[in-house]
Amino acid sequence: MAQIKYVITDGLGIHARPAGLLVKCCEDFSCDIKIGTPLKMVDARRIMGVMGLGLKKGDELTMTFEGADAKEASQALTEFLKTNL
Amino acid sequence: MIIFNGVGANSGIAMGEPYFITKKQIEISSATTENTQAEWDKFVNAKKIANIALTALFERTKLEIGESEAMIIDVQKMMLDDGDFNDYVTDLIFEKKHTALFSIQEARKYFSEFFLSLPDPYMQARATDICDMCYRLTQNVLGNAIEIDLQKPSVVIAKDLTPSETLQMDKSKILAFVMEEGSVTSHTVILARTMAIPCIVQCDFDADKMDSEIIVDGETGFVYINADSDTRTHLLNKQKEQAEHKIFLQTMFGKPTVTKSGNKIEILANIGSPDDLEYALANDAEGIGLFRSEFLYLGRDSFPSEEEQFEAYRKVAEGMAKPVTIRTLDIGADKQVDYFNLGKEENPALGLRGIRICIERQEIFVTQLRAIYRASGFGDVSIMFPMITSVWEVKHCKKIASIVQKELKDEGHKLGEVKLGIMIETPSAVMLADELAKEVDFFSVGTNDLTQYTLAIDRQNNKLERFYSPKHPSVLKMLEMIAKAAKDNKITASICGELAADLSVTEFLLTAGFKKLSVSPSFVLKLRAKIREM
């Protein structure tokens, strides 16, 4: 299992557009991907859940990856977060 | 005369007849069915139709308005396929044996209430997207069309407008938006701004009284019904002034920037990222006088690669198709980046910044120069170095540039001719202007820093306002010295600081001998109008 942590720098937090892009980015992989905070983790391929986390600038998010391509997925998502959030 | 008051969300005055968008959000009573599969098929079919309609709307929006606005529609498409949403509906249909219509309604309530319960107003506004999508699904199940057909130019009045409703309307027939709900952060408002349509939200109006001509003032948030003649005249004048000013500025589009006595000036644009290019083009800039490269380095935790930088520079050089001057990175002072590991400084404004970093950390500099030189094969590109204080610094930069240039040629890259220039933004550079001019192809004056260093005043310290003046005689004197040194050495001198956009000094700058002024894109046409009057 791979895990990444990231502090959001985007002023609006996980708003609609990056949430959509994030879901799309996860769809390139087959492993189980979850996103959220230690209190609440949701399926990263479900946009309502991702937006519903209500994560904002300064919040630390956690992503976990479980499955065959977990490593590749975590690398791709690390890049994604840096660029988009 | 009746006046309704709301929150002005996008300025502009419009008058015309109202067009009401009433959504019959019908309340469906609980109903069960034995044929659950048939209800599920209805739901799946409604989704399919919605998907086709949203795809078409997405393409149209991307073409007519832009990619980021189109993404709003794309997100709705993704919501249609969202696992949580579909699980919820599946459970209602197959387990609870509800009809498709009732299930969609319940899902709408559940998910919109969920978003409304979030503390962030932006997320609360997303409940509108859920309602928009579910309304579409309901109408599809019922087999109703959901087109909004504006027959003539109208003031569009609605309880709330969803992005898909806004986007499908014929833009040329929307005079203004007046919404009972909505917030300034809603997508519809963002779209109204992009399309330059006056817009009022949170307006407490009585639809029954809005039967005749309506006047909307998007600046004040007032909606006038049956306006009396004084008010009407006042608003008409205001509208005329705004329109005239806009049209007047647009008449400057494509006109040469030349004074009455025939002094030809170039007005260029300052940009901070490739995204700003469209504003430079929309305002008819004659080139990019300052392309700040810091955006590539800020807001991340590792250095941008040569490839990444090359793409950004190429995009601007190609897209502009006119001269583009790229300033090498000017990190330091008020722009700090952790991964540069520059260490803490007592006084960053007088510390390791601008060209000093490039000289100390040559690998960073070389990567950037390689990217810029490669982009020069795709357009008219110049390079300028910031924060120069000595002649040796310029010689050093030129030497590195020539090594980079040779390496790239050896590697087989096609390069354009690249002019090298410097920013004049320290008193030292002003004093040495004559010597520096012999080393470079052009000067560009950064008036903000030059003023700060000359007056020994921190721009960000508001206690010093009384002592600070961008038109301080010492600064103006320096500008004359810079222009003279440039002229004596037959190189060009331009201004790219805020002073260039100050219409009260334009005459002074032109008299001093500056031939190029680089300003924010929105100032280009105003400045051109001013110069053509001189």
Contiguous uncertain segments of 5+ residues of chain A: none
Low-confidence stretches of chain B: none
Spatial shape of chain A: globular
Helix content of chain B: 40-55%
> How many separate structural domains of chain B?
2
CATH superfamily assignment of chain A?
HPr-like
CATH level-two architecture of the largest domain in chain B? Alpha-Beta Barrel
Annotated CATH homologous superfamily of the largest domain in chain B: Phosphoenolpyruvate-binding domains
CATH class type of the largest domain in chain B: Alpha Beta
Mean pLDDT of chain A: 89
- Global outline of chain B: globular
Instruction: Find the count of extended strands of chain A (DSSP E, 2+ residues).
Output: 4
What does this structure look like?
- The complex is a heterodimer of chains A (85) and B (534).
- Chain A contains three helices and four strands; from the N terminus they run βαββαβα.
- With 85 residues, chain A is of the alpha+beta class.
- Chain A has one domain (2-84): 2-Layer Sandwich (Histidine-containing Protein, Chain: A), CATH 3.30.1340.10.
- Chain A has a four-stranded antiparallel β-sheet with strand order 1-4-2-3, with helices on one face.
- In chain A, β2 and β3 (40-43) form a beta hairpin.
- Chain B folds into two domains: 19-142, PtsI, HPr-binding domain (Enzyme I, Chain A, domain 2, Orthogonal Bundle); 260-533, Alpha-Beta Barrel (TIM Barrel), CATH 3.20.20.
- Chain B has helices spanning 36-64, 67-80, 83-95, 100-116, 121-125, 127-142, 163-168, 187-194, 229-251, 277-282, 306-320, 355-360, 362-375, 391-410, 427-431, 433-437, 447-455, 473-488, 506-512, 524-533, and strands at 2-5, 7-10, 13-16, 18-21, 154-158, 174-179, 199-201, 214-217, 222-225, 266-271, 288-292, 324-327, 381-385, 419-424, 442-445, 492-495, 516-519.
- An eight-stranded parallel beta barrel of chain B has the order 10-11-12-13-14-15-16-17, surrounded by five helices. Chain B has a five-stranded mixed β-sheet with strand order 2-7-6-5-4.
- In chain B, α1 runs antiparallel to α2.
- Classes of the chains: A alpha+beta (85), B alpha/beta (534).
- The interface between A and B is medium-sized, with 22 and 24 residues.
